[in-house]
Every structure is written in structure tokens, then in C-alpha cells.
Amino acid sequence: MSTPKVPGSGFRVPGCRISAFQLFSISAFCLLLAGCATGTGSKWYAPATWFSHAPAAAADRARAAEGKAEVKVDAVQFNATHAAHVEFAKADFSILAAPDSKPVALTRRTLGNGLDLLGQVDPLTAAESAEARAIVADLLSDSAARVAAAEQKQQAAESEQAKLSRELTQSRADLTAAQAASDTAQAKLRAAFDRENALANQLRSQVARFWIAIGVVVLLALFALYVRLQLGGVGAALHAAGVPAAVMGEIDKSTSAVGQWMMRTGRMAAAKAEAVLKAKLPPTST
User: Fold this and answer.
1) 254 CB-near residues (< 8 Å, 6+ apart)
2) Maximum Cα–Cα distance across the chain
3) What are phi and psi of 196, to 5 degrees?
4) Phi and psi dihedrals of 12, rounded to 5?
5) Quick one: which of 60, 118, 43 has its CA closest to 84?
6) Cβ atoms of residues 123 and 85 within 8 Å
7) Measured distance CA(55)–CA(192) in Å, rounded
């Protein structure tokens, strides 16, 4: 049979009754003990920890943006270098058709040197070389139709080169801006580290003082136990020796209240032990 729920009485179970407010309080207390920490160590109940990781996150984002800008610059520079290589190949093909002379020979020589180096870092495909050779041949031909068609191809290549030049300029500007933003974020991160490290050192100092206090308390407790045993032993010895009450009174006058208590407990313990021992011994016959 289900337990009836009385209006306004909260949740009722056999043997107990819990109100909604009590249930909420218990849940909140459990959450407080749990901490509800994130991977950054922030706590929901401590607002000062909510954004403590923000400088590091901002530095990470700035560094990622700088890395993307660097990749973009590298890509545009590679494309620009490749386009320049194609144009140098066209120049080399065209100079081969020029009459021999010292200037032509020198141009052919230096172009060959440059193309050899470019070929090592940025080789052209066979199709690109063939297309460049065909454009040069058409531009130098006597056919107006071939010249016009080749001129269109050359103008399209030059338009693409101008676009690459603009992209390279913009990507370098973006990289400079990203580097500046990254430097600013790193400076803020350094300042945040110094601030958080100062707070961490305060906590470390508190922890150190706590353990020092614990150590002092333990040492004092051990010393007190040692004194207790010693003075208790003195009291037991005085009882065993049958010291008169007058002498005990004089000793008490020269001892603090704590010392009197320790010695008195020792005498009392010795008296109890003696009484127990006597109770266990058989009566002597007369």
C-alpha cells in the first residue's frame, strides 16, 4: 500500500518526512562538498575562479591564429614562387630563339643558373613546361591568330600573378597582426601567471604553517605525555615509599596544579594497584 502524501508536508517515506526545502538544502550541501570543478580547477561557488583560465585560453587562441597566418603566408609564397618559375621558364624559351650575342649568351647563362636552383626547390611538371614553351612559340610566331590566343593566356597568367602579389601582401600583414596579438596575449598570460602564482604561494604558505602547527602540537603532546608518565611515576614511587602527608603537602606547594594532578593520579593508580593485589592474595593465618 502506498504511503499517502499530506499536502504541505513534502516527501513522506515510512518512518520519516522530508520537506522540499530540506531536500534542496541537502542536495546543495552535497554539491558543495563535491566541488563541481572543471578541468581548469574553477569552482562554481567561487566566482573568482571562473575566468582565471581566460588569459591562457586567449594565448592559445592567439597562437593558433598566428600559426594559421604563417601557413597562409607559406602557401601564398609557394604559389608566387611557382608562378615566377613558370615566367622564368618562358624567358628561357624565348631567349633560345634570339640571335647569338654576348648579352644573349649572358642572359641564357644566368637564366639557366636561376632555373636550375628553382628546379631543385620548385620543379615544374612536364605539362607546365610544355604549356610555357607553347605560349612562347605562339607569341613569337607570324600568325596573328596564334599570337592573339597566346596573348590571352599570358594576360591571364599575369592577372593571376598580380592576384598572388596582393594575397602575399595581405597575408604578411595578417601575420604581422597575428604576431602582435600573440605577443599581447603572452604578456597578459605572464601577468596572470605572476598574479596566480602569488596567490598560490599564499596558499602554500598557509599549508606550510598548518603542518608546522600540527608538528608543534604533536611535539607538545609527546612532551606532555612524557612529563605525565614521569610525574605519575614519581607519585607512584612516593606512595610506595610511604611518604607522609606533610611531606606530600610540601611537595605540592612547590609544584604547579598540573604537576600536582599528574603526581596525584600516579599515587592513586599505585594505591588501586596495591589494593587489587591485596584483594587477590589469600588471607594469612595467625
Assistant:
1) none
2) 159
3) -70, -35
4) -115, 130
5) 118
6) no
7) 7
pLDDT of amino acid 10: 45
CB 43 within 8 A of CB 51: no
Q: What is the DSSP string of the chain?
A: -PPPPPTTS-EEETTEEE-HHHHHHHHHHHHHHH----TT---TT-GGGTTTTHHHHHHHHHHHHHHHHHHHHHHHHHHHHHHHHHHHHHHHHHHHTSPP-HHHHHHHHHHHHHHHHHHHHSPPPHHHHHHHHHHHHHHTSS-HHHHHHHHHHHHHHHHHHHHHHHHHHHHHHHHHHHHHHHHHHHHHHHHHHHHHHHHHHHHHHHHHHHHHHHHHHHHHHHHHHHHHHHHHHHHHHHHHHT--HHHHHHHHHTS-HHHHHHHHHHHHHHHHHHHHHHHHSPPPP-
Residue 167 vs residue 284, higher pLDDT: 167
Mean pLDDT of 210-226: 92
pLDDT(14) > 60: no
pLDDT in tens, 66-102: 999 999 999 999 999 999 999 999 999 999 888 889 9
Handedness of CA 146, 148, 151, 152 (dihedral sign): negative
Distance CA 264, CA 270 (A): 10
**pLDDT bracket for residue 285 (50, 70, 90):** low
Q: How much is the CA Rg of the chain, to the nearest whole Å?
A: 48
Q: Is the pLDDT of residue 58 over 80?
A: yes
Rounded to whole angstroms, how far apart are CA atoms 283 and 159?
129
Q: How many CA atoms lie within 13 A of 20 on its CB side?
A: 6
pLDDT > 90: what percent of the chain?
54
pLDDT attached to residue 9: 44
Distance CA 178, CA 70 (A): 9
